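Something for you to look into today, if you have time. I want to see for myself how the chain folds. Leave the record below and I will have a look.
***
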Amino acid sequence: MKQEPHAPRLRLPLTWVGLLPFVIFVVMFLVLPTMHIVIGAFQTRDGAFTLQNILDLNSGTIPSSYWISVKISVASAALGCLIGFGMAAAVVFGAVPRWFKSPLLTFSGVASNFAGVPLAFAFLATFGPVGLVTALLRNNFGIVLQRDLGFSILSFWGLTITYLFFQIPLMILIITPALEGLKREWREAAEVLGATGLQYWRMVALPILFPSILGTFALLFANAFGAVATAIALTGSSLNIVPIQLYAQIRGDVLGNPHLGYAMAFGMIVVTAIANIAYIWLRVRAERWLK
């Protein structure tokens, strides 16, 4: 009898095996914890479904904590975009030596991922009550930051400045390729038509770069809004922001409500997701001009 040919087996290319550890890591430490938070936000302590945790986000000091977190995120994102854009433009268009570009991008790659407890300790050691800069100004110039300048590292602007350490490098990394994508022919054509340098930037360059700048602002906003470890390690309970409120709910105290903490974390996920979606959409629009 003639044997029928076996159906071909579906074989996974061996090159995909290298992605297996990454997939396992993402599922275990990103997907599953996120699902646990989302499900817990709609549960009671007994595991029953409820919307009360979401409704409670509008009670107590939680709305004000969200508002302060939004203001810190907007301030750090705006300053990060402004300073980072200036530094990237200075490197790309030759205002500083060309050899400076490689060290700047290398440092930006490292600094954009430097956060958490080490970053908080670094700024406390520099601008804290007994920090290096604080002691230097007090001992040599008689300037007390808190008394004379009204600055405290544990305040709104203290946390904002701390966030700038990773916001500015991130802006440099993202906006540098966009600046390099500006074609020289566009500037030459503007000059031939009699446009000044300021007119070129106002009418040609900035409109083209605007989606990239606005998208990067959205990404920096999400980056600051989701920063938890740095805020907790730096300010503790002295600043009423969402990460501090969330930590107080889920750390296990008698008065804490873990499921309310899950609801607060769910709110942070929603805010950061909207900001990241805006970044992706604007990034796609910007790439149409720069191809």
Summary: Residues 165 and 231 are 13 Å apart (CA to CA). The mean pLDDT is 86.
